[in-house]
Amino acid sequence: MIINKPLIKLCSLALLFSFTLTLPAGAIDNKPLLGFTRDGAIRQREMETRFDSLLKKENLREWMKRLAARPHHLGSAYGKENAEFIASQFRSWGYETEIEQFDVLFPTPKTRLLEMTAPEKFTARLAEPALKEDSTSNQASEQLPIYNAYSIDGDVTAQLVYVNYGVPKDYDALAERGIDVKGKIVIARYGGSWRGIKPKVAAEHGAVGCLIYSDPRDDGYFQGDVYPKGAWRNENGAQRGSVADMPLFPGDPLTPGIGATKDAKRLALKDAPTLTKIPVMPISYADALPLLRSLAGPMAPEDWRGALPISYHLGPGPAIVHLKLEFDWKTVPCYNVIAKIRGSERPDEWIIRGNHHDAWVNGADDPISGLVAEMEEARAIGELMKSGWKPKRTIVYAAWDGEEPGLLGSTEWVEAHADLLKRNAAVYINSDTNGRGFLGVGGSHTLEKFINEVGRDVTDPQTKVSVLERIRALRIVRGSTDDKREARERADLRISALGSGSDYSPFIQHLGIASLNIGYGGEDGGGSYHSVYDSFDHYTRFGDPNFDYGIALAQTGGRIVLRLANADVLPLVFGNFADAVERYVREVAKLTDDMREETRQKNRQINERSLWIIADPTEVYVAPKAEAPVPHLNFAPLQNSLARLQESARSFDGVMNEAAASGRALPLEAQKSLDGILIQTERAMTREQGLPRRSWYKHQIYAPGFYTGYGVKTLPGVREAIEQRNWKEASEQVNIIAETIDRLTAEIDRATKIARQSPRN
Ligand SMILES: [Zn+2]
Question: What is the distance in A from the centroid of ligand 1 to the CA of 290?
Answer without folding.
Answer: 31
